[in-house]
Amino acid sequence: MDPKLTEVSQQFERFKAACTRGDIHSCTILLSQLKVLLTGFRSLPPLFEDSPNAIHELTIARDIYEHAVLLNVKIGDQDAFERDFFQLKPYYTDVGGRLPPSPQEHMILGLNLLRLLVQNRIGEFHTELELLSPIALENPCIKHAVELEQSFMEGAYNRVLSAKQNVPYQGYDYFIDLLAKTVRDEIAGCSEKAYDYLSLTDACQMLLFSSDHELLQYIKEEHPEWEIKNGQVILQKAKESAPCKEIPSLQLINQTLSYARELERIV
Predict the structure, then answer these.
(1) CB contact at 8 A, 91 and 122
(2) Rounded distance, CA 91 to CA 94, Å?
(3) Is 149 helix (H, G, I), strand (E, B) or coil?
(4) Is the dihedral of CA 206, 193, 188, 168 positive or negative?
(5) Please, what is the Cα angle at 103 between 98 and 107, to 5 degrees?
(6) Quick one: pLDDT band at residue 201, thresholds 50, 70, 90?
(7) What confidence tier does 157 reach under pLDDT thresholds 50, 70, 90?
(8) Secondary structure E strands in the chain
(9) Which of 30, 45, 205, 246 lies most in the core, judged by the most C-beta atoms within 10 Å?
């Protein structure tokens, strides 16, 4: 075997062992070193030069970037996720026909769709969907992301909040939690405008918490201005604390009259 390929393979095994141990610090260091080593393979994108070990080099590079994407989900780094995903994508699109299928491809494509949904990049979400094959669209990982987007657009927030109960892959929890927080914040904002107070039971049901403890923790972290009193969540206090700006009616009238005089002169 080529010495460079042997070095990358050995380093990759050390990286996977660190991931198994949960040693994130070692994982990030080893991953950076692996990316540097991959630059020595001219068979990789964007050069795609033929070599005796091209298929082996392309396959191990794809595996490395797949592990990089999953590591970014584990540590919650969305920017690094995006960078590594775009480095990985050519291995699915440009050389996919030359390599054996990756068992993680659809799962990672689904993770990227969830990322775009969490970041409210709906146009890019649908662009990525257009690029997928009919077979990919039928995969549970892709369908789960599509159903979430439909629920989100329809305002069916209860379906979004309950989506965590049937995720096709454990790594989806990170993005689903972020999406659930966005949805809960939206519901909380609407509730403040619609109600003066809610019972703890009603508030739990509305925000889809399974216990009063979860609700109280959410209020403590996200809405400390809400008041808990006699088994009720008082929202009126939040309304009263919101600044209310007066409309400068006299100033607006004077400006309107001034504009009218200027128009009369022009005409």
Answers:
(1) no
(2) 6
(3) helix
(4) positive
(5) 115
(6) very high
(7) confident
(8) 197-199, 227-229, 232-234
(9) 30
Q: DSSP assignment, residue 232?
A: E
> Phi then psi for 227, rounded to 5 degrees?
-115, 135
Q: Is the pTM of this model over 0.85?
A: no
Query: What phi and psi values does residue 19 have, to the nearest 5 degrees?
Result: -65, -40
Tokens of 143: 């369908």
Specify the 3-state DSSP secondary structure of 155. coil
Instruction: Look at residue 228 and give its three-state secondary structure.
Output: strand
The 10s digit of each residue's pLDDT in 69-127 is 999 999 999 999 999 999 999 999 998 788 999 999 999 999 999 999 988 899 999 99
Q: What is the dihedral of CA 77, 155, 185, 176, to 10 degrees?
A: -30
CA dist., res. 259 & res. 69, Å (int): 58
Amino acid residing at 248: P
User: What's the token pair of residue 127?
Assistant: 């662009």
Amino acid at 49: E
- HSE (side-chain half, CA atoms, 13 Å) at 236: 6
What token pair was written down for 256?
Answer: 């309107």
pLDDT at 244 over 60: no
Contact of 148 with 114, CB cutoff 8 Å: yes
